[in-house]
Amino acid sequence: MHTIDHIYIDGAFVTPHGEERFDLFNPATEEVIGTVRLADAEDARQAIAAAKRAFPAFSRTTIEERIALLQRMHDAIVAREDDLFAAIVEEYGAPVSRGRWMTGHASGVFLDVIATLREYDFEPRMGSATVRMQPVGVAGLITPWNSNAGFICGKLASALAAGCTAVIKPSEMSALQTRIVTEALHEAGAPAGVFNIVTGRGDTVGAEIVGSPDIAKVSFTGSTAVGKGIVRAAADTLKRVTLELGGKSPSIFLDDADFAVALPLAVMAGFNNSGQACIAGTRLLVPRARLAEFEAMVVAAIDDIVSGDPSDPATTVGPMVSRKQWDRVQGYIRRGIDDGARLIAGGEGRPDGYARGWLVKPTVFADVRNDMAIAREEIFGPVLSIIAYDGDEDAIAIANDTPYGLQAYVFSADEARARRVAERIDAGRVAINSLKHDPKAPFGGFKQSGWGREYGVLGLEAYLEPKALLGLSG
Ligand code: NAD
């Protein structure tokens, strides 16, 4: 059993003022594996005060000093890679390959930000003005459970690179990962108060951060519903807000696509992170004339997807993170059936051979209309919908007929044609004939998938405020 009873404020591990204990589960066994003592609003206030005290000195550090700190943070996370990997598998249920990727991502983001920082011009000329790109202030960073360590590190790296100090509110369901990340980052020797980590509930610690006049900027990754509440709560202090929210991403197969190449990629995009991915390609848009061929190939491809024990290297889809998430996914599968979609793979219940664990059968529906709930709402589980279209214009219209706009995938034998379609999709990223990620490229959503961008230069500028100096003679 893990007992986590410290938070991190002002450079020290301290006992929270909050007294609530929160159970941690292993999603593969449904067993309680530990408890975490949660911070409360008073702890959040202490953390904000520490970050505020640390801001004046840290905001004046040189780029080289910040690069050195980010490098030490990278090295410290690398040194704890095995522990972090074990925590991700135990507490989140990520399959081995995904867990390794997540572990590497948590350290890699520091190097990505260092690369951006080395090239970034903090004092560009614009007209006759010298523009100082100035750190915005104390940043509040709020993370979800589906990539907790990666988002703590990614958001913190960008905030520190800009010269901001930070208060981090990780997901309360990810306390094992948070403990390891916090211990590692502590070893990196940042000045006290530069970053503070307070695990607590969203409606207490999160709300305190969002409402505080001493927080200048909130970067939030999570659900669209909570994101909208954050915008409302942040309005009183007009703080800067970056939101990375949900998605309902289309994978568009143009009629010349080679399904043998494209379909495995699309299946990977759909079941990425066990389906608990904001960028999951969950709507498969297929030319009506090739539907039968596509369906047969999907059914065959699903046979190779193993939903099961995350510690088994053969597993590609792990359990859902919680009972609540499992119930939610099961509810959507039922809803799809009730709404008249045709199940061609998977369905309700656990995969064969499993009596416990929050496992879901990799599920694919055919005959889905884009107005059905399974095509409109983010399920956040391994459930895909095949939607037929007639002609490229129809495909583009269906792809854009969604409140979301985070990611899209386009597959075609003709790259120029795929590009023309990609240019008309309203999404923050469109991957063409690939599942490419680039840490220098902006990441974020159109429409209700968010506000602003993370990664690369735009991710850094999310923590900067431009100040134009006019009238200088030089
Ligand atoms: P969530 O919105 O329930 O919680 C996210 C975080 O916000 C948690 O730390 C939670 O404690 C906190 N929170 C909750 N209420 C709050 C409040 N009132 N004020 C401040 N903070 C509050 O989301 P989740 O269930 O943890 O994560 C799943 C969601 O995250 C999905 O919708 C998914 O699409 C989204 N997501 C988006 C991205 C992206 O980059 N776009 C990445 C991963 C996950």
Indicate the low-confidence ranges by residue numbers.
none
* Bound molecule kinds, no repeats: nicotinamide-adenine-dinucleotide
Give the helix/strand class. alpha/beta
Report the sheet with the most strands, covering strand number, pairing sense and barrel closure.
7 strands, mixed
Terminal-residue CA separation: 64 Å
The shape, in one word, is globular
Strand arrangement in the largest pleated sheet = 15-16-17-14-13-18-19
Q: What's the CATH first level of the largest domain? A: Alpha Beta
**What is the count of DSSP helices, taking H or I runs of 4+ residues?**
15
What is the fourth-level CATH superfamily of the largest domain?
Answer: Aldehyde Dehydrogenase, Chain A, domain 1
What value does the average pLDDT take? 98
- Fold-level CATH name of the largest domain: Aldehyde Dehydrogenase, Chain A, domain 1
